[in-house]
Amino acid sequence: RKFKYPVLKISNLCPWVCAHECSSSLGSDHMENIDGYLMKYTNLVTGWQYRFFVLNNEAGLLEYFVNEQSRTLKPRGMLPLAGAVISPSDEDSHTFTVNAISGEQYKLRATDAKERQHWVSRLQICTQHHTEAMGKSNPPPKSRSYSMASQGSGSSPMSVRRPSQNPNSLFGWSQAHKGSSLYSSKRSLLPDHLMDAREMMTQAQGQHRDLIQSIEGLPAAPGLSSLDQDLLMLKATSMATMNCLNECLHILHLQQVHSPSMTGPTIEWLEPKLPDILKNGSSSLGSFATGEGPLEGSCLELSSPESCSFSGEQEDIDAEDELEDSFTDKEEDLAALGMDLTRVVLPTFILEKRSLLEMYADFMSHPDLFVAIADGGSPEDRMVRFVEYYLTSFHEGRKGAIAKKPYNPIIGETFHCLTGERRPPAASEDPYQVRFVAEQVSHHPPVSGFYAECQERQMCVNTHVWTKSKFMGMSIGVSMIGDGCLYLLEHDEEYTFQLPCAYARSILTVPWVELGGKVNIGCAKSGYSAIITFQTKPFYGGKLHKVTAEVKHNPTNAVVCRVQGEWNGVLEFSYTSGETRVVDVTKLPVTRKLVRPTEKQGPTESRRLWQHVTESLRQKDINKATEHKRILEERQRTEERHRAETETAWRTRYFDREGEGWVYHKPLWKNSALKS
């Protein structure tokens, strides 16, 4: 009772800290059976479905039914809560997971944050009660120790089984429990080495509880309190660590279930080698299980190094051949297609069916906002318009909530498209077209150049990007190193900018993407600049995809506009005049690209180059997609060796090296200068 008010304050920071406060102060006498509807995630095809859940505190079970009317029937499913871990998700404030000791997991979503907190609190109280009861009835043998000191003999606890390691005694599964298939059927799926890991997890969970109890048992004294910020942080970090370890063990269990014929504790994707996704310049599918030798009947255009001596040659593109894009594939979670996860270097089993070069073209999905920059009546107005275009240009590049990785482009690969008004618009509007071209100009490091222009508005943008990846525990960070420049020729203005970093989070469960970092936009001629901050979600609380921006007139140091909101949601623009304007990114009209059919594309254009990989992924044939991609990558390496042996320099098609950057070979500003 005395912790009631502080607990409410803590819940704003971290719901599961609140849950532990509640569980300690309320005790088992406040355990109650609760029920209600929650959304349950089944798979990517079925998605989220409403199910009626019942928390049975006496039995320590979480049961669910199709609906409330069917609760008198046998449950559709149930999870034992003894030894389970309840984890509020960092995706949003509604989702949480229940990870059973057997490795089975429920991903659930409440209607709001308050309801999630109620379920999480009650589930954690029930879990703690039954876990402690299980530990008291069958405590782990005292002779077992997994301290770092005990491992100094060179004998790992994972590699030796001792007679005392009886799984039944470890988990409280005595002979009396053998009649229940609830535990025995799940436990039998755990191999010996996973039972060792589970025992260590049980000990770690006990130490975690001891830590929590020690902190909460601190006597009330001046300058010392269980609600001290550092102690709360320590509690939260301990819980986060336990959740992380439990999710890892869950992945290992699923791997074992999907590969029952596998013997021994060797798991390929846990070997100490660098995943392909982290090797700059390498592509993402090479980590799949690959077969030996080429595919029969495979017909790829790059049949020999000599056939690829296309460097420097440019393709003639007929605008009449470009048709409205019909590429409407819904991205699927390939992990749900029955793949052998032991043969995959995580997280490369989730692929987007297109090249990174094509993904860059999504920056032109709202061409009306792009061309509107040049229509601004003042330098201030044009800078604000550019900021609006910039903030709304990232949403369309993500095809869904789950993070997908596009193909890493092959050196010399290109992508062309057209967007804007194909036919004459209404008489009150001026027609325009935006042409986009991208090229992979370097393999080591992997550098892409892309350029877009609108001749009718006398504006163009040139950008070069080096994608540099690094592993960050449960995340992968991709730094977008490089610069871009927007040219407004009618106003003789140049706007320099960069791109934010991208992060793939929760790579061992359901990956999702967020942007992070600070971006500077500047126009030297007008003196206006903007600072855009993409804020990553903090570990405790906070919103996803938050972004803020500030437009300033440098000579006077006056802020003329502020922006706040989400880059994939609602953005609010506030002006010094007191006026506000709201832009909902999700409701902006998307202009589809005009792309030539594959048969009319050149052999190194993205869709033709990757067509066999893409088609195999559509057919869910992972091995075939792997082999097609392996052929592309091997030929890229062969060509690179051939150029090194013959001392032949690589020649790009559309971009020229200028200093540290790459510039389109026929930019609009050069053409305009020649005409004048």
UniProtKB/TrEMBL annotation:
Q: Does the keyword Acetylation apply?
A: yes
Catalytic reaction list: a 1,2-diacyl-sn-glycero-3-phospho-(1D-myo-inositol 4-phosphate)(out) + a 1,2-diacyl-sn-glycero-3-phospho-L-serine(in) = a 1,2-diacyl-sn-glycero-3-phospho-(1D-myo-inositol 4-phosphate)(in) + a 1,2-diacyl-sn-glycero-3-phospho-L-serine(out)
Q: Where in the cell is it found?
A: Golgi apparatus, trans-Golgi network membrane; Late endosome membrane
Alphabetical keyword list: Acetylation, Endosome, Golgi apparatus, Lipid transport, Lipid-binding, Membrane, Phosphoprotein, Transport
Q: Which GO terms describe its biological process?
A: lipid transport
Residue ranges under compositional bias (Low complexity)? Answer: 143-159
Could you name the domain of life of the organism this protein comes from? Eukaryota
Q: What is its main location?
A: Golgi
Signal peptide positions are none
Q: Which Pfam families match?
A: Oxysterol_BP, PH
Composition skew (Polar residues), residue ranges: 162-172
Locate the PH domain: which residues?
31-128
Note the SUPFAM superfamilies from the entry: Oxysterol-binding protein-like (SSF144000), PH domain-like (SSF50729)
Q: Which molecular-function annotations from GO does this UniProt entry contain? A: sterol binding
Region: Disordered, residue numbers? 130-172
| Cited function | Plays a role in regulating ADIPOQ and FABP4 levels in differentiating adipocytes and is also involved in regulation of adipocyte triglyceride storage. Weakly binds 25-hydroxycholesterol. Interacts with OSBPL9 to function as lipid transfer proteins.
Q: Self-association or partners: how does it assemble?
A: Heterodimer with OSBPL9.
In which family does this protein belong, per the annotation? Answer: Belongs to the OSBP family.
Name of the protein: Oxysterol-binding protein
* Naturally occurring in which organism (per UniProt): Scophthalmus maximus (Turbot)
Name the gene behind this protein.
LOC118304143
